[in-house]
Amino acid sequence: MSKISIDWRPDRSSSVPVYKQIIDYMSMKISTGDWAVGSRLPAQRQLAKQFNVNRSTIVTAMDELSSYGVLESDFGKGTYVASNTWSLMMTDAPPDWSRYIQSGSFHASDPIIQECRRCEADPRFISLGTGQLSPSLFPREEMSRAMERVAGKLSALNYQEPLGLPALRRSVARRLQRDGIDISPSCILITSGALQALQLICLTMLKSGSTVFTGDPSYLKSLQFFQSAGMNLSGLPMDQEGLVYWQIDPERIQREEALLYAIPDFHNPTGTVMSADRRKALFRFCQQNHLPIIEDASYRELWYDEKPPATLKSMDKNGMVLHIGTVSKTLAPGLRTGWIAGPESVIHRLADMKMQMDSGASTVSQLILAEFFSSGAYDKYLPQLRVQLKSRRDTVVAALERNFSQIASWDAPAGGFYVWLRFDENLSARQLFRAAVREHILLFPGTLYEYGKSCSLRISYAYAEEREILYALARLSRIVRSMM
Ligand SMILES: Cc1ncc(COP(=O)(O)O)c(C=O)c1O
After folding, report:
1. pLDDT band of 235, cuts 50, 70, 90
2. What is the pLDDT of residue 439?
3. Which atom of ligand 1 is nearest to the CA of 197?
4. pLDDT-derived band of residue 1, with 50, 70 and 90 as boundaries?
5. What is the Cα 12 distance to its own chain's centre?
6. Is the CB of residue 301 below 6 angstroms from any atom belonging to ligand 1?
7. What's the whole-number mean pLDDT along residues 40-67?
8. What angle do CA 242, 218, 109 make, to 5 degrees?
């Protein structure tokens, strides 16, 4: 049996761990045939000296190669090369990713949400649930012009300061001021959408076991993120005027770190607008009980006939409301641009977290949106959008009356995208989802948003074309009747 001599040494300056370098080196020698099957390796003590490492490092490397069947040890013969064929491939085998994925702290989305995303990308589907604007409502020409102007002025595409592009923050501050929120640009953080604003709050200000009060149903319930982070989501009933906040046990607020999440304007998924009285009473309750509020105003600008009542943030004199906005619902979710307005100290802490995560929102998107705001294009476009969404709302409500009046109930929304369709009979929204998918109709079941059992659907009239919505609603009513 030939004995192997070695003149190689591990690279101490490399970021690859030494034991791994030893495995790679030995695998290479064996697979290239330099070390023949049956040849004997120097003793472990000798290798440790040669490589200038502890003996335990040699043992770790050899154990791993032995586990692949590449090396074998035999008392008396020492360690020798046992194989140079299939088993060598094992060193290149991919790691067991599923084990890693299972042990990660963030869980996969609900399988239905994953399927919704797949169906949304499939052109054969008509979506009755998608929460974004139809391409036919997109202001293509105004957006192209804004982009051209940005391109004409471009001198660099560098990172922005932690709070985001100053010109965009000034525009957002002006818009908020017009809406009764007295805020300066230094209290605004630009985020990659409202979703990231929520994630930043979750990561920076809450810990596992913290309680987040939300409506039942609520958009937040559909986000696996908060649940993965160990938040205790607690659903509050909702009535025609909004959150039934008085069901919050004040003692629970004292006991647990808690926040309240509210979508006062054209709520996702119910479409409800919180009344002015409810807003005032809710704000008073939170103030008395030291319960901070996250106000999600994602749909606020999408009113049809009248503006919703004043924001919770506009009542806030002590910095207890974090106000979130976005252009995802009004203009372009693909810009991934939103914001949080709040007390300067909190905003700076959130900005630091954002820098740690992604070094800031897209500079291109921020430049485009700043241009779209400051040129007046956004203010010109919004009223037209409201008219079109209102007309879609009317079409859908008429179609619901034709198809569902015997079997379901709903309230006509005064803005936003959604009608919350509640079936009279207890039918499984998930089964209904499956049955509709077979007919290439995509539904968003209420179970995604509710805490208990649900027989509701979130219908969005913003995305599909009106004739498609009419066709899909008629089909849906037949599917529902056949299931009842
Ligand atoms: C209430 C609410 N908040 C936040 C978001 C996320 O918006 P963005 O695309 O800005 O992250 C959505 C999107 O559906 C929403 O409905």
Report:
1. very high
2. 96
3. 11
4. low
5. 41
6. no
7. 89
8. 175
